[in-house]
Amino acid sequence: MSVDRFRFVSPGVFINEIDQSQVPQTSIAQPSPAIIGRFERGPAFVPTIVNSFDELVNIYGNPIPGGTVVDVWRDGNHAAPTYAAYAAQAYLANSAPVTIVRLLGDQSALASGADLARAGWIYPEATKDTAGGAYGLFMINSGSTTDDLEGVLAAVFYLSSSANIVLVGAQPTMGTAGSPVSANAAVLESSVVGSGTTQELKLRISTIASSSATVESTFNFDATSPRYIRKVFNTNPQLVNSSITPSANQEGYFLGESFDRAVNDKFSSTTTKKFGLILALSASSGGARTKMADFQKTFKIPQTPPIIAQDPGPNSLFDINSTTREMFNIVARDDAEWAQNNIKIAFKDILQSPNPSFQPWGSFTLQVRAMNDTDNNPLVLEEYNNLSMNSDSPNYIARRIGDSSTGWDSVNKKVTYAGEYPNQSRYIRVNMLTDSPGKDWLPFGFKGIPKFKGFNLVSGSTVFRALNVTGSDATWALSTDPISGSVGFGGNASTAGHQAIMSGTLAPQGGIVCTAADLASPFELTASLQGPTMPLRLSSSDGGLALGTNAYFGLQNTLSRTSLVPDDSIRDLLRIRPGGLQRLDPAAAGPMERCPGFSLDNLVLNANQDAAYYSGSIQNGQGYSEVRAGQSQGMSYGARRKGVSITAKSGSYEAVLDLDYNRFVVPLYGGFDGFNIAEAEPFNNARALGGEEPSSVVSDSDFAMHYTAKKGIDVVADPDQVDINLMAIPGITVRGVTDHLIKACESRADALGIIDLEGGFKAQAESSDSFATRAGSSPATQTVSAVKARALNNSYGACYYPWVQIQDTLSGKRLWVPPSVAALGTYASSAAVSELWFAPAGFNRGGLSQGAAGIPVTSVVDRLTSAQRDKLYEVNVNPIATFPAEGIVVFGQKTLQASASALDRINVRRLLIFLKKRISRISTRILFDPNIQVTWDRFLAQVEPLLRSVKSRYGLAEYRVILDTTTTTSEMVDRNIMYAKVLLKPTRAIEFIALDFVVMRSGASFDD
Questions:
Q1: Are the C-beta atoms of 394 and 386 separated by less than 8 Å?
Q2: What is the pLDDT of residues 36-95, one digit of tens each?
Q3: Between the CA of residue 363 and those of 389, 641, 715, what are the distances in Å?
């Protein structure tokens, strides 16, 4: 008896399925599949119901067909198709809803130190403690007669362990003595003078082991020029991956960050010369250079820096980055890099209370704007008006926008939810930083985002030394292992070959002042180098606004102050930092610090009545560090403008708002997808997921993407949390993941898992081989062998073969997708034209060429013969066949159950899932009611019509429901149990038709 198999502890409905249909040893509800995988954007690891393709695009972006992407670093990885997005599109074409689970890179808490065990990436992988890694290109101005040189990090190159990088060209001369730099060969090759109208430099990148693998190009930082740095050097990290890139196309390096605006702000068109300098980068004194190329991290959600209130008192020592008047952060809604690259947060209509004695709280508007819009033509994605910091108000910012966040309970395998107010925004949520704000507090600015600290560069007789302004060793531009042709840095004073600091004194802004006497040998070069700083709007007239009060101060994301062209390099300023560096709030002792930040309190009214931003202009004290850090923004004159801001001169922040300068913009930063950027498909089966070999024992702690994929399944594994009846993770074929999916469906007992199989065709992201090689010579045979080896026997799973070619409905591009994509489409279309329990196969409901997949199917990778179809069907693989007249057809409907019974067919399994769900819901309505005949009759009165309806629609041949004293005995009643039996005879689908054609003699009678 099934009752004896249950463990009754907490109240509930307990259902047991008894399969008595075995051959001796032989729409009422809308289907809702869970589709797990990569999407362009959207919430990660949060099961989200989507009701239409338009809604799918709005939340998760367009399906990506894959193909060649030039600047993968800057524009994102669109090289491999997003199979899950196409599966969702296929299903939504004929039915709804679907439940989406987007995957981002995560890792097990027990992850080992191996590269594949950790999310993210590091380059080079196998030699991170020896050679290769990150190299910074610094641009240095021509200096004054005393050679007070200033420079800025302009770009970062990532090199393999066998490559080197040098600047080539003329040697620089510096100082009144005009002495050339000549004592150090590394300096000779690594410092050159920019010349010409665009002040171009030349860079050589070569592989030591192969002199033929050399790139030597002249470049500049003009995005409109054919010699723009991102046009002449490799910006696709996938080209360093020999597993997916043919040898003829492989590179030993890629260009990562380039800070175009920082270079353009530092060097005007009148700058006569620029010096270039290549420095090996590191994250700690004496550490390996690749620490600056170590992005092995789990996915991170971006957010704004703390939004701060106005200055508590004018003419103070107000320091934006140390103020405690933090109000809130704006955080992306479970999205990562897409959010920080594509949206920004704007505040406008910041108003003080008109009657502080009656209602002290002011108000403001928050906008979600497109990152690449301009103040001249703002693109507002969302807007929330009349917001307040008053927690008792219906306009309280957290209440209007929402503050709910999600997490993952790895012990109980469930999504956790926190926060007081449900999220109303599609893009953001609010993270309150104070429970007791001042009643007059208004959003007036923001703290700075992290940047690399500046350091001083002083040369010795053989090597350079990098110093922080305080005189200690710099912590992010050091290396103890220079390679041929590059500048190496000594890690500390005791390092062999490290020389004493040359004579010189700190300049007012932290640079080294060199005199003519300092130029004598062995002196080579001294300069103050800075990390790039976030550009700020400096004037309300920037960009030629017709009305200055329409200017949004704060972040300025254009190529220059006067430009209206978006600056894509802002993405590199906002991205996550490498190694163990602080992501959001830099530690004082580390190599990071905050940018100057922004406050409306620093606005100054010029003679022409335009507002200008001078950092530190509210202060009546020193404000030294803030002004110095802003130097690269052209704000050094702020040191001469203390105490002259509108707030300082009027004695009140209200004067700024009275002039209608009440707008500013702030970015999101610190987001990270957690993927290996060198992989076109981060969830490739061959490497990232642990491989497909039968002998492979894949551990979650050894393969981060294996753990991530299984986590995506676990998110929807609990039927009490997520209501689904199908589950798929398209494109993933490794056994550990697909077995986990089938087991999750079996454990739920109310969902059918559609899996893709190993063997046969391999996607382009898996290998650098040609299409013919990846298709294989006998892929069907390989698939049959792989399925036999797995010995699958589970009616909660199904699979199909082979891969199909579809046409993207938006771009028209054709691409290959796994068979689960087309299969899901047929499940929806079959239910739409017939019933859920009809077989989703055959010419009537499985004709892919006739649109049954929901998306155009144009071809198959393997045209099956009748014999091949038979062999596939014998091992419970459903063939996708091609016929001359009918086209491409799903020609099978078996589950993965090996034993012969009604449940070895998909239509019966789906019927059982449907009925169990519906009868379970009926049962929940009588829980805790009296266990008497009246209650039993209520149950029967609802179940009987359901089964009768299914029978009338050809789902059941016969049925019977037994609920009386023979099932629910007095002993059961005493144990608080109601026990019913539901007997079913499912209608079988016709899969085999036998026809006898008898040829008779002329004189024979048909009546005989």
A1: no
A2: 999 999 999 999 999 999 999 999 999 999 987 889 999 999 999 999 999 999 999 999
A3: 8, 30, 39
- Which residues have C-beta within 8 Å of that of residue 171, sequence separation ≥ 6? 180, 181, 182, 188, 191, 192, 193
How does pLDDT run across 608-651, given as a tens digit for each residue? 778 999 988 887 643 333 333 333 333 333 344 677 889 988 88
What does the chain come to in residues?
A: 1008
Under 8 Å CB-to-CB from 40, ≥6 apart: which residues? 60, 61, 62, 64, 78, 82, 85, 338
425 neighbors 387 (Cβ within 8 angstroms): no
Residue type, 14: F
Where do the H-state alpha helices sit in 749-817?
771-775, 779-790
Q: Which residue, 666, 663, 683, is CA-closest to 674?
A: 683
Structural element, H or E, at residue 381: strand 380-387
Q: Which domains does the chain have, with CATH numbers?
A: 33-108+675-679+691-899 (3.40.50.11780), 121-298+458-530 (no CATH), 908-986 (no CATH)
Amino acid identity at 289:
R
Beta 512-513 vs 505-506: how paired, if at all? antiparallel
d(CA 246, CA 773): 13
Joined tokens for residue 487? 């500048």
Residue 300, number of CB atoms within 10 A of its CB: 21
pTM for the structure as a whole:
0.89
Cα separations in angstroms, 569 against 279, 341, 452: 21, 10, 16
Residues 6+ apart with CB under 8 A from 292: 133, 134, 156, 281, 282, 283, 476, 578, 579
Q: What is the pLDDT of residue 734?
A: 94
What's the Cα-to-Cα distance from 762 to each of 295, 769, 848, rounded to whole Å? 28, 9, 22
* pLDDT digits 0-9 by tens, 190-234: 445 555 555 678 888 887 544 456 888 888 888 889 999 999 999
The set of residues, in sequence order, having a beta carbon less than 8 Å from that of 485 and lying 6+ positions away, is 164, 165, 166, 186, 189, 190
User: What sections of 687-778 are H helices per DSSP?
Assistant: 704-715, 735-748, 771-775
Widest pairwise Cα distance in the chain: 127
Compute the distance between CA of residue 962 and CA of residue 87 in angstroms, rounded to an integer. Answer: 41
